[in-house]
Amino acid sequence: MEGTSEFQPTGFFDSLSGVSRHIRMYFGQTQLSSGTCFFVMSADGPVLVTNRHNFTGRNNITGKPLHKKCGIPDHAVVTLHGPSEVHYHIDLVDHADPELPAWTEHPTLGAKADLVALPVKELANIIGEANSVSMDAVSSQRNWHRWDVGSELQVIGYPYGQVGGPFPIWSKGFIASEPDVNIGGLPIFLIDCRSRPGQSGSPVWARFKKGDVVTHKGKDYQAKEAQNYFLGVYSGRLRADSDLGLVWKRSCIEELVNHASVHGTQHRMERRRHRFGASLSNEFDLERFMGESFDGVERGADLCD
Fold it and tell me: pTM of the prediction?
């Protein structure tokens, strides 16, 4: 891109750190909350996925506003890092038809699923296989390995905003409920993880590290390199005073993305170029973070906060 310096990262960073994206919800010029989103690469191009409550500004179970002043977002901004910083603006309200949502919901669960999708074909030159979740990989992983109760996983997102600069924070957790049993009749399993506001909409991953050995159909296999497995989408804690979190299963996301690819709408992109750095646009300042509670900006992001 003209007028920008080439992106020359120094050192090593994990490929999964490039998948999660920071998203902010606004009413007018007022930021109400922040969360996490990511892109799934479908046959028709990238599809943005996040929690429904991020876009509605309401608890997905009770319908009550999440913001302490009952603010409901009318647009959202996704930050994409690369050779230049790109801000993708999403109108959440169709002023010609305010009752019509800008996003696509699950084809059978509808508003019961705390998930939404948004096809964004115009980002195909920015979002690729390396920084998205591949639908082909999701399908091929379904029957290869079973992740059981107690299996380690990672919730990769943006607690309290861009704490890690452009890259997300990795929160380690464990599968806490039988993954084949639906919670409350919905395709959800529980995890034990010290997640925080801002991680709603984070992709949840399990992985084999290089050298790990796994038995499959009576044979032992050793990973020659790190192998990542997409398990679902984190959508907040079960209770505000608990470390038990909710994860919508991989199969549910696959159904949603396939539906959105056929029935979803497109949105336009607005770009603002900045130099790439560890802290961009003063979105994160360590002194401010340590000295403030972030109430009023971040507390609306998680399901039960």
Answer: 0.83
